[in-house]
Amino acid sequence: MLKNLLTVGGWTMLSRILGLVRDQLLAAFMGVGPLQDAYQVAFRLPNMFRRLFGEGAFNAAFVPLFSSVLTREGPVEAREFARRALGGMLVWLCFLCILGEIFMPEVVRIIAPGFVTDGYRYDLGIALSRITFPYLVLICAAALVAGVLNSLHKFSVAAAAYVTFNLVGIVAIIFVSPFMPNVAYAAAWGVTASGVVQLGLLLWACHKAGCGLWPLMPRMTARMRLLIRRMVPGLVGSGVGQINLTIDTIIATLLPSGSVSLMYFADRINQLPLGVLGAAAGTTLLPVLTRHLAAGEHAKAHHAQNRSLSYVLLLTLPSVAGLLVLSGPIMIVLFSHGAFTDQDALHSARALCAYAIGLPAFVMVKVLSPAFFARGDTKTPVYIGVLVLVINLIFNLLLMKPLVYMGPPLASSLAAFLNVSLLAFFLKKRGALTLDFQTKRTSLLACVSAAGMAAGLVCVSSLLHFPSMFLTRVIWLCGMVSLGSVIYAIFLHFFKLADFASILTSVRRRVSMKR
To answer: InterPro entries, from UniProt (predicted)?
Structure first.
């Protein structure tokens, strides 16, 4: 479990680092304003559908079914089911894409109501959205193929393919921009081109794994009916986080120009630990839980769930502490270049703090949701999701005026804590979540360790003020991050949560074996 989590997490981390480079280019070339706002809204739409149909409801329903068929009936039946599901997905999404292209002006009115009064942002938002919208077809199909690879325990191949999104995006911004009306057009075309590359790589990997997935015409078989029955109610339940972020974007378009951009860059930094840890845990845990439950190994399923919770909390809590204490320096060092000013970075840092508060809840939702999906239950998360959506909207409306661009991020964080609390409550009520003593102890001591790390960083940063030159700023930030890591490691060692001597010995042994 830990090996698979770290494998997926490692590739996801590389993707996030390249994504950071891509975002730095977007910030430097477009800054904060109408151009950036329009591009971010155009990207939000296909990205939301990717989370809902691709990585969310469809995969949550498809992966357990595919894994069960693979275990019980063999690879031939499983491959035919996957090809039939891929064909059905492509037909449905192509139809949806055509409708979106035709009615894009109305769609933009819904997802960006604040653009309507600004003709430039509205027209640009429509043009860019039409360019990026086909990405949803490509990336949702890619998510299905990646789900097949994950079920075949080819975690690294599936995770590595997503690195190409940011590589293609970087190339588009740097080399295609001179041939476009502005950088936003180049970035938008880069989004769609990356979908072609990702889907191609994943299909090739499936073919190499002996499971070629040329799509079949959809047929309403018993399995397809079961897949749809599980998927439809899960559209809200599994994608509640993305829907909440979309609500945040809708609210942000009603705020002063630039609010969408400030929230986006804050969310991108928050997504580094969330994407690496949450996505890795959810991706690796779902097929493991499904396999144990299909074999009747309930004790092993509980053990896998508990270990995942322990691992993600140990790795997430120090991230929260670091983001809260160092949000300003992080945003300045990473984004204060070109058209993105220091003042813009500090405003975005406030939004980052609001997002970071909810980071543990965002990650734990990724860990707890598979417990429902592995048992074929997609209804309970949807009921919870509807409630959380309503509460998030209420929080947004209450906080948007007094907190402006900090309001939507804080609303999402509060809604995330409600979400994880309800998921845990229903799992525990059904006997699907039993926290053992070790998990409770690890969680409590990880909180203490993260708090100690934050206190140490606050003390040191008050003595060593943030410098004004870029190079010294980078050195200062790297030093503070290193110091925080050391402090946290000392706490973990003191509480016996990590035996670094054993870890070092294990690493040396693996290196020696490879030689």
So the answer is: Lipid_II_flippase_MurJ/MviN, MurJ
Q: Is residue 409 located within the same domain as residue 444?
A: no
Q: Do 365 and 467 reside in the same domain of the chain?
A: no
How does pLDDT run across 73-104, given as a tens digit for each residue?
888 888 888 888 888 888 988 998 999 999 99
Q: How far apart are CA 83 and CA 359, in angstroms?
A: 36
Alpha helices in 336-358, H assignment, sequence order: 342-357
- Are 265 and 349 contacting, i.e. CB atoms less than 8 angstroms apart? no
Domain span at 443: 438-515
What pLDDT is attached to residue 317?
92
Whether residue 126 is found in the same domain as residue 275: yes
Domain boundary among 403, 432, 461: 432
* Spatial distance between the Cα atoms of 411 and 392, rounded to a whole number of angstroms: 6
Nearest-angstrom CA–CA distance, 15 and 217:
34
One domain for residues 269 and 326: yes
User: End-to-end alpha-carbon separation of the chain, Å?
Assistant: 25
- Rounded Cα–Cα distance for residues 453 and 465 (Å): 18
Give the burial class of 508: count Cβ atoms within 10 A of its Cβ; 0-12 exposed, 13-18 middle, 19 or more buried: exposed
Q: Please, what's the largest Cα pairwise distance for the chain?
A: 68
The pTM score is 0.75
